[in-house]
């Protein structure tokens, strides 16, 4: 028994004629007749007396048609409920964001979302990519802003923008006076990474053509997770960093950062949800708010190379230690 079959018997009861009912249901008359016959055979009851003109329901058929009407009304109510839920711009939303993006995007995002969805309460959690993906799958988070693609079939990604990487150099670096940065052979051992930010580090190693971080900075180890700390290490001439462009939003005149030549290495930033997430309108509002609050430099077209992380040998090896 299907919803469509119930619609057919209700239409037949209202029209009392196969051809007119078929026209109302936008189906061929033979198709409607076959579906009625299948339904009657399934339940073992004749719903209509075909010997009477006009077509007349049987006694039990009348009761079945009345129940069908009730079921169809309830189905419509469910559909209306789902539509309202998808379009609801209020309530609570648990939002996660990667720590290499949070300090720079969240202040802009909060201001934009106050105007776009003033009745939504956002609970924001900053964490690393692996934890955010787990929290999405378990329902601890509703939406995550992160670098994609994740390669996770249980998650749905809605790309927002492509964020270029830039080189952050100290004043003594051989490329310090150049317009663009080009990787130097000696830079590979000077690259500064972040502790436990495996997806971010994997992207940096990809840009530098490295598969492992084992030979980087062997003379000291550190446990930091802040791009701002990386910048200070660079200023102290303890290495060089590759950082996302939003992290220099307030340093556009600084001579310490250098753009790459095209195709520019970028990370794709997306809104990521589980496959059961239903608030589509809110997702659209978030996407629009983030795009609108971005600096113009990130909205321009340019030749780029998207840097992945989920298929990096470094990432797979690093995560396996903690799984």
Automatic annotation (TrEMBL):
What name appears for this protein in its UniProt entry?
A: LysR family transcriptional regulator
Q: Which UniProt keywords apply?
A: Activator, DNA-binding, Transcription, Transcription regulation
Give the classification, highest ranks: Bacteria, Pseudomonadati, Bacteroidota, Flavobacteriia, Flavobacteriales
Q: In which domain of life is the source organism classified?
A: Bacteria
**Family per UniProt?**
Belongs to the LysR transcriptional regulatory family.
Record carries keyword Calcium: no
HTH lysR-type domain location is 1-58
Q: Name one GO cellular component term.
A: protein-DNA complex
Offer an example of a GO molecular function term for this protein.
DNA-binding transcription factor activity
Pfam families from the UniProt entry: HTH_1, LysR_substrate
Q: Does the record's keyword annotation contain rRNA processing?
A: no
């Amino acid at each position: 028994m299907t919803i469509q079959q119930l619609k057919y018997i209700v239409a037949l009861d209202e029209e009392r004629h196969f051809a007119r009912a078929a026209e109302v249901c936008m189906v061929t008359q033979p198709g409607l007749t076959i579906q009625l016959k299948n339904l009657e055979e399934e339940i073992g009851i004749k719903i209509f007396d075909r010997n009477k003109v006009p077509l007349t329901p049987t006694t039990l058929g009348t009761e079945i048609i009345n129940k069908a009407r009730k079921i169809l009304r309830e189905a419509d109510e469910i559909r209306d409920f789902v539509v309202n839920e998808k379009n609801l711009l209020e309530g609570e939303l648990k939002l996660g964001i990667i720590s290499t993006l949070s300090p720079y995007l969240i202040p802009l995002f909060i201001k934009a979302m106050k105007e776009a969805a003033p009745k939504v309460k956002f609970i924001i959690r900053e964490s690393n990519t692996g934890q955010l993906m787990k929290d999405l799958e378990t329902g601890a988070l509703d939406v995550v802003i992160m670098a994609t693609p994740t390669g996770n079939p249980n998650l749905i990604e809605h790309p927002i923008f492509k964020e270029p990487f830039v080189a952050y150099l100290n004043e003594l670096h051989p490329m310090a006076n150049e317009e663009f940065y080009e990787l130097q052979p000696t830079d590979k051992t000077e690259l500064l990474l972040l502790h436990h930010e495996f997806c971010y580090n994997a992207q940096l190693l990809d840009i530098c053509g490295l598969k492992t971080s084992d030979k980087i900075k062997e003379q000291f180890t550190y446990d930091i997770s802040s791009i701002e700390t990386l910048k200070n290490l660079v200023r102290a001439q303890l290495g060089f960093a590759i950082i996302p462009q939003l992290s220099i939003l307030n340093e556009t005149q600084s001579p310490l950062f250098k753009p790459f030549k095209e195709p520019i290495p970028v990370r794709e930033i997306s809104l990521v949800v589980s496959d059961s997430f239903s608030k589509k309108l809110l997702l659209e509002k978030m996407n629009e708010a983030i795009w609108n609050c971005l600096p113009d430099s990130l909205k321009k077209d340019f030749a780029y190379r998207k840097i992945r992380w989920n298929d990096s040998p470094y990432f797979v090896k690093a995560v396996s230690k903690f799984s």
